[in-house]
Amino acid sequence: SPSPAVLSFVGAPHWGFALGGGAIAGATSSAAVNAARLCWGVVPSLLAWPCASCPAPLSLDALSAGLTLAFCVDGAFAACKLAPPNYLWLRAPPTIAAVLSLKATTACGQN
């Protein structure tokens, strides 16, 4: 399953936001906000690989939860105007597809 790799990379845009000066839509970010972005940028990777090493269906459920958590954190950044205005619109379809795919795989494995 490519899900661990996908989860690993969902934090990467926050590195770009932080290292790019942090300005989104004319706003400026403090050093603390940029530090939070850099820290969050690695958390999905730290979550993904232990999840992948768990046996199925636990690994599939954990990866689904990780993708959902990452989307929620991105939503919190967006609500604080710390992400581009359309960022969540770009993130939602692949997140939904990945989570539904993982859930379908789990359901098929339990038959």
Give an overview of the whole structure:
The protein has 111 residues and is mainly α. α1 runs antiparallel to α3, α2 runs antiparallel to α3 and α3 packs antiparallel against α4.
In short:
The chain is mainly α and 111 residues long. 74% of the residues lie in helices and 0% in strands.
Q: How do the strands and helices of this protein lay out in sequence?
A:
Layout: H1 3-9, H2 12-19, H3 31-52, H4 58-79, H5 87-109
Helix pairs in contact: 1-3, 2-3, 3-4, 4-5
Properties at a glance:
111 residues, mainly alpha, 5 helices, 0% strand, elongated
Percentage of β-strand residues: under 5%
* Helix share bin: over 70%
Rg from Cα: 15 Å
How far apart the termini lie comes to: 19 Å
> Which residues sit in consecutive blocks of at least 5 with pLDDT less than 50?
none
- Number of DSSP E strands: 0
Structural class, by secondary structure, is mainly alpha
Number of helices: 5
